[in-house]
């Protein structure tokens, strides 16, 4: 219900043309992201209804980083090769993420308003066709202006990217005995 109200309030101040462009952007984004999600075992158990909190909410908050393969064809849209879920959290939302990690909950579930609730940057997952693309996406994410300094990441990240690029990233480890 809260996600629906948030989406409705986001659309309330837009013109009809802008709403149409916004909706088309969401449809196009889903059309690219869903096929990659379907290739990854850790997401296959999710239902279509789960895509609202998993993909649409972070997409509306600009919290999905994309990796595209540039096309040699003039005018062709570069193909999506990978993406990353990330969030900028306040203390309360960060505690919620840490609790879910400790309880070995995956994927991390956030409310729509939590994806951009504060300044604590978290990389929650990287989904890519190859480890090399995941590593490049990780590096690109770390250098992006939105990150602006150190960030934390879900423990799964250390299994998806080359360890030599992890550097000073704070990998959150599950607390023993939690959950």
Automatic annotation (TrEMBL):
Main location group: cytoplasm
Keywords in alphabetical order: Acyltransferase, Cytolysis, Cytoplasm, Transferase
Subcellular compartments: Cytoplasm
Assigned EC number: 2.3.1.-
InterPro entries membership: RTX_toxin-activating_protC_bac
GO cellular component: cytoplasm
Keyword DNA-binding listed: no
MF-aspect GO terms: acyltransferase activity
Protein purpose: Involved in fatty acylation of protoxin at internal lysine residues, thereby converting it to the active toxin.
Similarity comment: family membership: Belongs to the RTX toxin acyltransferase family.
Name of the protein this chain belongs to: RTX toxin-activating lysine-acyltransferase
């Amino acid at each position: 219900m809260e996600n629906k109200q948030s989406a409705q309030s986001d659309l309330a101040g837009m013109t009809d043309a802008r709403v149409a462009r916004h909706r088309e952007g969401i449809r196009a984004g889903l059309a690219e992201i869903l096929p990659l999600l379907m290739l990854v075992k850790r997401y296959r158990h999710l239902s279509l209804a789960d895509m609202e909190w998993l993909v649409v909410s972070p997409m509306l908050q600009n919290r999905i980083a994309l990796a595209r393969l540039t096309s040699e064809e003039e005018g062709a849209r570069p193909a999506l090769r990978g993406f990353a879920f990330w969030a900028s959290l306040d203390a309360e939302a960060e505690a919620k993420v840490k609790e879910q990690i400790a309880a070995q909950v995956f994927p991390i579930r956030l409310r729509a308003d939590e994806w951009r609730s504060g300044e604590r940057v978290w990389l929650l997952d990287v989904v890519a066709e190859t480890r090399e693309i995941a590593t490049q996406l990780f590096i690109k994410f770390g250098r992006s202006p939105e990150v602006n300094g150190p960030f934390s990441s879900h423990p799964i990240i250390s299994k998806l990217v080359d360890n030599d690029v992890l550097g000073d990233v704070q990998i959150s480890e599950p607390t023993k005995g939690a959950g």
